């Protein structure tokens, strides 16, 4: 049926091997069956090594069987399938599988006809992704940039897989810093109730109020009282708070607009105020809070060594980052009915999230059997000197300036290639932006997120190697092939439907098989949320495409340059390549351009 066609060769093979193993060895779990693409075409396209773990399991049960015999027994149960051309036992008991050509061709056509849509998920999940989450009145820094880029792309991927994704911006908008900010605002703009002041440079405003807080006892007292009034939602204080949040929000939005961050819903810590009150009542009733020198703390389920408790209520009665996260976790599970909750936050906060999980289990908010929770951590951003990413004068880098510099460098790059003589000014600007933001995102996403990440414009804007600029060039080149061939996508689809596809050349074949791994790669990332796998795949597609293109004519021309022959099947292969690349770019949040 249709869904079968949408499954990748690996999935189909896995399914039929699972069936065969369960017939030959009903006592072994199906998890022993895995199929991996082979690195050497001598060994076919995929390899199944299930005979080895089965041999181990039998041995443990006191039975000695040669793995080659086991492999043969599996093959005896393997039903004939259109997927495979040939199956062979090799070496110690490996099963090598060769894919059937016409099957691969059919799959490729169906990729094109179905717009590379993955099969619908077995169960559509409600997924909450918490990312970006900067703090009001503070500058959004490179850590927030990483969280924004990674979170956006993980959300795109899960949505693409057919899930229901809620993207939440857990803005820090309710901390104690608001006491001093409000008190300072009241002094600086006494008329703030009637005329909305423009707070202007929030950074400076924050610093000024901090200095007063640290040096002026009277101010400090007022600041502390202001927090209490704010958390009690006294209208005047709420109004002042809103003014400050609005000013920040405008700054954040500028960054989001530039980076095409569109579906992110703002739901800051303040959202949970009433829920925090309820939670604390509930925990008090259940006798879960312990008194610790005036603070109320909550210990987690597992009291491991080095375990730290959550501070739920401070000695002055206020709530903390811990309180709002526990409330938010509950809200996401109970009210949003989240099946899966994801946090994209820097690695430095991993202990906090471990405690969150532990505490949430302790008070019955979270059951790991029912809800999946992932802390998606990422390493710190370093400068090219391998030290913490800073400006030359040692200040934190402003994101707006960083993006500006990216665009400036991308423009230079395009001018070096004389593109400004070909493109209109508008096109040049659009291309420079797409390149700059694309390169920044790609450089981030293509690194294993668990490692530290060295930010280097020179590297990310290199047009050779695994960079967005190389990939975007490759993509526009491929798109221009079908433009030159003057074959409309609908014509190509019609050809697929009516005649199907035939591939002969070894390089066509190689490219086709790489393209058919798309779905597997997405499945795999759904398990471990490592976006660099998609970048590796995208790069492999581009490289394999150029191998194909160097060896196979798509369009033939006479001496005068006139087109004499168009190879329709190859143009279809070009279009499927472009389609898959486009989907990857979309998931990664990278804009494509039609000319560059
Ligand atoms: N505002 C926090 C920070 O800048 C990040 C919040 C992450 N999300 C969360 N639910 N704690 O460090």
From TrEMBL:
Principal EC category: ligase
UniProt GO molecular function: arginine-tRNA ligase activity; ATP binding
GO biological process: arginyl-tRNA aminoacylation
Pfam families the record matches: Arg_tRNA_synt_N, DALR_1, tRNA-synt_1d
All residue ranges annotated as the DALR anticodon binding domain in the record: 471-596
GO CC entries: aminoacyl-tRNA synthetase multienzyme complex; cytosol
Principal location: cytoplasm
Tagged with keyword Transmembrane: no
Compartments it resides in: Cytoplasm, Cytosol
E.C. code: 6.1.1.19
Ranges of residues in domain Arginyl tRNA synthetase N-terminal: 11-99
Family annotation (HAMAP family): Arg_tRNA_synth
Protein family: Belongs to the class-I aminoacyl-tRNA synthetase family.
Record-given protein name: Probable arginine--tRNA ligase, cytoplasmic
Source species taxonomy: Eukaryota, Metazoa, Ecdysozoa, Arthropoda, Hexapoda
């Amino acid at each position: 049926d249709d869904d079968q066609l949408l499954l990748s060769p690996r999935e189909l093979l896995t399914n039929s091997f699972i069936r065969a193993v369960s017939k030959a060895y009903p006592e072994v779990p199906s998890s022993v069956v895995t199929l991996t693409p082979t690195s050497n075409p001598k060994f076919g396209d995929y390899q199944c090594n299930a005979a080895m773990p089965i041999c181990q399991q039998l041995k443990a049960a006191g039975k000695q069987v040669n793995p080659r015999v086991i492999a043969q027994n599996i093959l005896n149960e393997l039903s004939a399938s259109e997927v495979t051309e040939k199956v062979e036992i090799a070496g110690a008991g490996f099963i090598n599988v060769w894919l059937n050509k016409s099957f691969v061709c059919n799959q490729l056509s169906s990729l094109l006809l179905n717009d590379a849509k993955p099969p619908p998920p077995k169960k559509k999940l409600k997924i909450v992704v918490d990312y970006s989450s900067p703090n009001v009145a503070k500058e959004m820094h490179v850590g927030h940039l990483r969280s924004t880029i990674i979170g956006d792309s993980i959300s795109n991927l899960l949505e693409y897989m057919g899930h229901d994704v809620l993207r939440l911006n857990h803005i820090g908008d309710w901390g104690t810093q608001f006491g001093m900010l409000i008190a300072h605002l009241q002094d600086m703009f006494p008329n703030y109730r009637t005329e909305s002041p423009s707070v202007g440079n929030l950074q400076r405003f924050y610093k000024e109020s901090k200095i007063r807080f640290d040096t002026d006892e009277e101010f400090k007292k007022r600041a502390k009282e202001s927090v209490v009034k704010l958390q009690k939602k006294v209208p005047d204080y709420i109004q002042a708070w809103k003014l400050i949040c609005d000013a920040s929000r405008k700054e954040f939005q500028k960054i989001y607009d530039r980076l095409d961050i569109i579906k992110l819903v703002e739901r800051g810590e303040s959202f949970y105020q009433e829920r925090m009150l309820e939670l604390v009542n509930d925990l008090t009733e259940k006798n879960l809070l312990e008194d610790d020198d005036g603070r109320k703390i909550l210990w987690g389920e597992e009291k491991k060594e080095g375990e730290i408790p959550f501070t739920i209520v401070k000695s002055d009665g206020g709530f903390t980052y811990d309180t709002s996260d526990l409330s938010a976790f509950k809200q996401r599970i109970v009210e949003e009915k989240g099946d899966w909750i994801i946090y994209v936050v820097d690695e430095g906060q991993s202990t906090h999230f471990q405690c969150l999980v532990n505490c949430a289990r302790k008070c019955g908010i979270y059951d790991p059997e029912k809800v999946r929770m992932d802390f998606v951590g990422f390493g710190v951003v370093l400068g090219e000197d391998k030290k913490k990413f800073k400006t030359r004068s040692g200040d934190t880098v402003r994101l707006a300036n960083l993006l500006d510099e990216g665009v400036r460098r991308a423009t230079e790059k395009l001018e070096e290639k004389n593109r400004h003589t070909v493109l209109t000014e508008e096109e040049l600007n659009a291309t420079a932006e797409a390149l700059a933001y694309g390169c920044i995102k790609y450089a981030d996403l293509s690194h294993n997120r668990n490692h530290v990440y060295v930010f280097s414009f020179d590297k990310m804007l290199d047009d050779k190697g695994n960079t967005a600029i190389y990939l975007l060039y490759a993509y526009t080149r491929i798109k221009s092939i079908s433009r030159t061939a003057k074959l409309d996508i609908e014509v190509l689809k019609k050809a697929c439907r009516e005649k199907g596809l035939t591939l002969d050349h070894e390089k066509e074949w190689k490219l086709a098989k790489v393209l058919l791994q798309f779905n597997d790669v997405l499945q795999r990332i759904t398990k471990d949320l490592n976006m660099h796998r998609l970048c590796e795949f995208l790069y492999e597609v581009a490289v394999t495409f150029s191998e194909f293109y160097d060896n196979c004519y798509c369009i033939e021309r006479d001496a005068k340059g006139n087109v004499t022959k168009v190879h329709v099947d190859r143009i279809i292969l070009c279009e499927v390549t472009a389609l898959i690349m486009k989907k990857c770019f979309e998931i990664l949040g990278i804009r494509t351009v039609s000319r560059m």
